Amino acid sequence: MPQAVHLIQLAGSDQSFPCADNDTLLRAALRHGIAFPYECNVGSCGNCKFELLEGVMSFCWPEAPGLSDKDRAKNRGLGCQSKPSGPLQIKLRTSEKYAPQHRPVRTTATFVSKHAITHDLSEFKFETTTPVAFLSGQYALVQMPGIAGPRAYSMSNVGLINGHPQASQVMEFQVRRVPGGHGSAHLFDQLAPGAQVEIDGPYGMAYLREDVERDILCVAGGSGLAPMVSIARGTFNSPKMQSRKLHFYYGARSLQDVCGLDMLQALSDWDARGHYQAIISGEPDTANLTNPYLRGFAHDAVAQSFGERLQQMEIYFAGPALMGQSLLKTLIDLKVPMDQVHFDQFY
To answer: How far is CA 159 from each of CA 46, 131, 233, rounded to the nearest angstrom?
Structure first.
């Protein structure tokens, strides 16, 4: 059935955009080049907040934690959780840094294959019907049949680089099996080759900056491996970045969780320009941990390894929220300029 399309007007400006009633305000805005602020895209962070001035809308997740009771009382909504029921006028403060580098598209995709990375982390390969242009480090929303709401997964394959001839029809995601998680359970246990899903992307601000001349630090934990591997692949494939060195730190809970080195060693010139370090936080003290592993937490290892040298590096990170919060505090304490630090906020 054709979807109704409604006009969304931004109050106090001459900007407007169409939004189908099966799309969200945030994603429709980005599809039309509107610089709508956001981060998590799934209702948790609150960065895509706006005020409804006129019209009626519905909510994908009425209890989304990114919106407080006070926000609701003031007629505020979340762009990623709001759908129009007719024309709307909204109050929104746009910011040019959120203008999409590549406008997101929705496309069906066919599941091709998966392979195990660790005991609970696997890479899933899809082929999209429509080519998707994305940058290394970005993510997409995957809507699986029978699962309420899309899941945000980062691409692990290399995104567009300078001079790349065309968008890709291959998207690869590295996903960790989450105990009790319906989305990951569907991927691991029910999705068979040939099955179709909907993929909507790209999204995310923590993409590879090719024009920056600083060396790179990637810090990953868990399924945060995916965007950091994509950043590394983009770095080593970019003609602009052939003189950059890349340090890759992976925080793991135990020895069986350590991963990523084989993917990096497959990159041309890795031995000359790359450095990998795994840090293990959860093994008992009696564990026989020898080189190349460190004991402790990723943020401490980064601080001890680089100290104030971090001020001269371009830093990307992805992983568990606590790891990200600890690393961000460490970088702030070491006076690293925040415009050199890139991450997408997930919960």
So the answer is: 27, 12, 8
Alpha-carbon distances, residue 144 vs 26, 79, 318, 320 (angstroms): 20, 21, 23, 23
Look at residues 320, 313, 318, 317 and name the one whose alpha carbon lies nearest to residue 335: 313
Q: Which of 34, 157, 163, 10 is nearest to 88 (CA)?
A: 10
Distance, in Å, from the CA atom of 221 to the CA atom of 253, rounded to the nearest integer, reads: 9
Rounded to the nearest 5 degrees, what angle is found at the Cα of 195, between the Cα atoms of 194 and 200? 115
Q: Are 138 and 207 in contact (CB under 8 A)?
A: yes
CATH of domain 215-342: 3.40.50.80
Alpha-carbon distance of 327 to 219, in angstroms, equals 9
CATH superfamily of 105-203: Translation factors (2.40.30.10)
The owner of tokens 């993917």 is 263
Amino acid in position 179:
P
pLDDT, tens digit only, all 347 positions of the chain:
668 999 999 999 999 999 999 999 999 999 999 999 999 898 989 999 999 999 999 999 989 999 999 999 999 999 999 999 999 999 999 999 999 999 999 999 999 999 999 999 999 999 999 999 999 999 999 999 999 889 999 999 999 887 676 788 999 999 999 999 999 999 999 999 999 999 999 999 999 999 999 999 999 999 999 999 999 999 999 999 999 999 999 999 999 999 999 999 999 999 999 999 999 998 665 455 555 789 999 999 999 999 999 999 999 999 999 999 999 999 999 999 999 999 998 64
Q: Write down the domain spans for the chain.
A: 5-98, 105-203, 215-342
Cis peptide before 100 (omega within 30 of 0): no
The CATH classification number of 5-98 equals 3.10.20.30
Q: pTM for the full model?
A: 0.94
Q: 36-53 burial, b if ≥16 CB within 10 A, otherwise e?
A: bbbbbbbbbbbbbbbebe
